[in-house]
Amino acid sequence: MTAALDLGLIFGLMALGVYLTFRILDFADLTIDGSFTTGAATAAILLVGGWPPLAATAVGGCVGLVAGLVTGLLNTWGKIHPLLAGILTQIALYSINLRIMGRANVPLLRTETLFTPLREAGLLGTFVSVAILAGLLALFVIALVWFLSTDVGLALRATGDNEGMARAQGINTDLMKCLGLSLSNGMVALSGALFAQYQGSADIGMGIGLIIAGLASVIIGTAIINNGRLWITAIAVVAGSIVYRLIIQAALSIPWFNPNDMKLLSALIVIVALLLPRWDVFNRIRARSREKQFVVEPWDTPDPEELDSGDARPPSQGVTKKAGRKNNA
Amino acid sequence: MLEVRNVSKAFFPHTINEKVALRDISLKLASGDFVTVIGSNGAGKSTLLNVVAGRYRPDIGTVWIDGSDVTKLPDHKVAQQVGRVFQDPMAGTAPHLTIEENLAIAWARNRKRRLRLGVTRQRRDVFREELKILELGLEDRLTARVGLLSGGQRQALSLVMAAFTQPRILLLDEHTAALDPQRAALITRLTEELVTRHELTALMVTHNMEQALALGNRLIMMHEGRIIFELGGEAKHQASVGDLLAEFDKFRGSGGLSDRTLLG
């Protein structure tokens, strides 16, 4: 249970990265399968080389920034489709990761890592490690939400929300895409660096299918709580990552499943998470909550001037109808 | 303030589909000019606006804003000095951001975007003041998401966003065309108010000839990529829709579908 919480929080950082590209920037970025491993590989090889854990982890994250930038440049400067740009970087990173590590697996068992003090004290997988990781994630959530509320962050969000509007408002959308992808992959690589130290090795295959875990976290998180507030959504994404790990762990505890079924399970979880909201029951719940948000618009009630001019039509015949209105009829 | 010098623009050049949108257009707007542009479909009105905004690059000719050549600048650079409102009410705002966040984005248009909070108390006061002019009660809904607003409200917000940074040029591309008559009248009134309030130089494309006559101090009529007729000052005040149609008939192409039908 606590191990799943630990993992959920470590991968929560990755999920925040996916949230940044997938939801905020509206860019389906597949680079992360590669950049996660790159962060892990870089940190691992530096740790083996005797670097202090904090520095090795930070460098791992920075390499991710570069990986994201490459995808960004391929997409904006090279005008390559987002999906293809991501896959190209991802596949290139596979070879680069092998170059970094020199082999397919770098064990960290006898190396000093960020988690060594916890492990030696026997606190890894207890509520102490959970609390520390939760504190770390809280810092990242605060930093991310603050960044997205700044002028630059708003420009980034506008780029993902309405690119034409963003350009008309003087925003260099290409730059914003590069920035967003870079930051996202930096977080993902940092998550990879942490995970390698947590599990005690970096492995060439550790990032495969990771985008699914990221998407699952974002979708589950926003399905649980979604009131559109930025910081609530960011927390929900981290919560989604934890829920995802718990589901995986619960499923693997069923005797018939073995760890090799994990990828199948993660795909199934995402499919269910994507299909559930379309079922009627959920739609009805949503419609009800939308009704609660209904507000009367000032010009739904004709003002005296309009009544005088004889142009006052009943509000229900106005051209501008809100989606929620249908439920009242 | 704005000068368009001998601009020509063709789409799909050197192909069988070649479409010449602008033919050697020259236009000069003095500071404070409010020019309305009318013309049939395909006359090149929107292309002209897009060329000024840096969205399209002219094949020949140059565009000058406030004495500097902006012909080769990317559109987001030109946008620092130009406010735009589009025909589609959804095009000018970001639906998932709040009203105040949208305004903050517009506020930063001609400033350097830094790592500073976009919505501060000071700015919020400014936003509230600006929204009050609309008399739509939006100033009390600063934290509402723009996607919840109606088309007319979004267009009114777009207008404020385009105008309140006091751009050198305001470009309006049939910005009332997608609204019902009531909202269109409201947006027209707001346009006039905002242009006066911020002393803007504006270029407005419209299909509505009454609107073209009612607003602004100059009027130009375009046809097949050329400016065929221009009215200014007192002459514009006294002109009627009938006068415009008569003028347009002189240039109407022979045969086929009458452009007058389209214009009316």
- Computed Rg of chain B: 19 Å
Q: Level of helix content of chain A?
A: 55-70%
First-to-last CA distance of chain A:
48 Å
Number of strands of chain B: 10
Helix content of chain B: 25-40%
Q: What kind of sheet is the major sheet of chain B?
A: 6 strands, mixed
Helices and strands of chain A, in order, run as: HHHHEHHHHHEHHHHH
What's the order of the H and E elements of chain B?
Answer: EEEHEEHEHHHEHEHEEHHH
Strands side by side in the biggest sheet of chain A: 1-2
Task: List segments of chain B where confidence is low: pLDDT < 50 over at least 5 consecutive residues.
Answer: none
The portion of residues forming beta strands of chain A comes to under 5%
Describe this structure in words.
The complex is a heterodimer of chains A (329) and B (264). Chain A is mainly α and 329 residues long. Helices cover 69% and strands 2% of the residues of chain A. Chain A is built from 14 helices and two strands. Chain A has helices spanning 2-24, 32-48, 53-76, 82-101, 116-120, 127-149, 151-161, 163-168, 173-199, 210-224, 230-252, 262-275, 280-293, 304-309, and strands at 105-107, 201-203. A two-stranded antiparallel ribbon of chain A has the order 1-2. In chain A, helix 1 (2-24) packs antiparallel against helix 9, helix 3 packs antiparallel against helix 4 (82-101) and helix 3 packs antiparallel against helix 9 (173-199). Chain B is an alpha/beta fold. Helix content of chain B is 34%, strand content 23%. Chain B has ten helices and ten strands. A six-stranded mixed beta sheet of chain B has the order 6-7-8-3-9-10, sandwiched between helices. In chain B, strands 2-1-4-5 form a four-stranded antiparallel beta sheet, with helices on one face. In chain B, helix 3 (99-107) runs parallel beside helix 5 (151-163) and helix 5 (151-163) packs parallel to helix 6 (181-197). Chain B is globular, with a radius of gyration of 19 Å. In chain B, 48% of the residues are buried. The mean pLDDT of chain B is 89. At the A-B interface, helix 6, helix 7 and helix 8 of A face helix 2, helix 3, helix 5 and helix 6 of B.
